[in-house]
């Protein structure tokens, strides 16, 4: 304060605004108490950057993105079981041999899957996968890729992908994809599929603009406990926020057969192997991209839902907006 006075800063130095002033703190506690009594303070889950190596949540500023990180990315298919009445006429002829094709760089999050998200504005196509064995020239574009059992199977399989991505996926998978029908993303909302790990039924939901045709399949595997965009979508649809991973980055008992496995190591491998055995794996391929690392331990992090306290403004938003009109603002703008 003495320095500021020497600099010639004009202020009400006898009555400074101090958040550590006991009267200020008492007022804060009083307001917080009222919020708590009226139910605005609650406990919930939200995904955060988590470092298994240092067992702590990390802020964005504590992350590093080193070059050369390679993830095990997979293309998988989730088997559809039903379509809403408005769409059933478009899709029923392909059931029960119809699936939703998704792409993810984190296969270990599949046990926490709660939905598949699509972009309402995109066009989607039902395509038939022609077996790898039907053409001598059929081969994946990336030599390091490994075709899954879905591509090796002789059975007729239909999958849904974004129409614009059909040529790209044909080249990547080394297959012929024959378009059987096209439909809008909005038509897919409320279709249901079987979860590839625990067999519960999950919905197709409408996601945001993060769903594009720049990569993947145009359909996004949604695990609200392991992704920020997935979390926002889950709030809109009331999806369960599953996060069967402990502080050390190992699957909990909630993950069933994968319990105890390290999600960034053996757990990832086990999930990919299981999906392949269940005829859900289209292809696995290495994918180099920027991935967050802990700045202290220099080891990779994960996105994981943890228990946190929240303050909801839903109950008093309008009262706060109305109060703005009763305040004298200096300066007015």
From TrEMBL:
PANTHER family, per database record: ISOLEUCINE--TRNA LIGASE, MITOCHONDRIAL, SOLEUCYL-TRNA SYNTHETASE
Superkingdom as given in the UniProt entry: Eukaryota
UniProt cross-references to InterPro entries, sorted A to Z: aa-tRNA-synth_Ia, Ile-tRNA_ligase, Rossmann-like_a/b/a_fold, Val/Leu/Ile-tRNA-synth_edit
Annotated GO biological process: tRNA aminoacylation for protein translation
Keyword ATP-binding: yes
Segments forming domain Aminoacyl-tRNA synthetase class Ia: 3-331
Entry keyword set: Aminoacyl-tRNA synthetase, ATP-binding, Ligase, Metal-binding, Nucleotide-binding, Protein biosynthesis, Zinc
GO molecular function, one term: aminoacyl-tRNA deacylase activity
UniProt xrefs under Gene3D superfamilies: HUPs, Valyl/Leucyl/Isoleucyl-tRNA synthetase, editing domain
Protein name: Aminoacyl-tRNA synthetase class Ia domain-containing protein
